[in-house]
Design a protein that fits this description.
seven-stranded mixed β-sheet, about 210 residues, 6 helices, alpha/beta
Length: about 210
């Protein structure tokens, strides 16, 4: 994971996916999304899907799911996982800021650990893309690292006011709750609070 003061890069994420296991690749959906499962309805776009665990879990629940990531390697792993699981997910290679150009309509967007990786400019471009993509009533579910997590290693932390400010234009905040972001134990650079890094789980609705 990146230092708190560094921004993500294709090379850095490629290096992490070159490890036997990327720190965030826990082999199952993060608990916050499982607990919110009944609220994640309709056609779902999973942004920053990585190797596909959340997208595949949602597809297994009967959702029509599209997963996007900017790296070909994890997308290949995701397609293999989906085949083994016997589910269909439309995996696309693209930058997050390009999702506004997807011609499909979506009822829900899931973002597990993507939003906290952006610098300010990329954050604004991503939110603008979601505004273009989503019709009123669609929901965005975001799990991101919280400023409550001590230290500076790992991805950039976000506070609740920062989340609210980022989505002030075109969205209403339905809820922001404390959560945990689990990582694979024993990987250097991924040592966080016991039970998982302190996180925020936000539900936002397009207005």
């Amino acid at each position: 994971m990146t230092s708190h003061h560094e921004q993500p890069s294709r090379e850095r994420f490629t290096a992490y996916y070159g490890l036997p296991t990327a720190p965030w690749d826990i082999g199952r959906p993060q608990r916050a999304f499982v607990e919110a499962g009944d609220r994640i309805g309709g056609r779902v776009l999973d942004c920053g899907c990585g190797t596909g665990d959340l997208a595949i879990w949602l597809a297994g629940r009967g959702q029509a799911v599209t997963g996007v990531d900017f790296l070909a390697g994890p997308l290949g792993a995701a397609r293999d996982k989906a085949r083994r699981a016997g589910v269909t997910v439309n995996f696309l290679e693209m930058d997050a800021a390009a999702v506004g150009e997807i011609p499909e309509r979506f009822d829900s967007v899931t973002d597990c650990g993507l939003f906290h990786s952006f610098d300010d400019a990329a954050r604004g471009a991503y939110v603008a893309a979601l505004r273009r993509l989503l019709e009123p009533g669609a929901r965005v579910f975001i799990l991101c690292m919280s400023t409550d997590e001590p230290g500076e290693q790992g991805p950039r932390r976000l506070s609740e006011p920062e989340l609210r400010a980022a989505f002030a234009d075109g969205f209403t905040v339905e809820s922001i709750e404390p959560a945990r972001f689990e990582v694979v134990p024993g990987i250097a650079g991924a040592e966080f609070s016991p039970g998982g890094a302190r996180a925020l789980f936000a539900t936002l609705r397009r207005v």
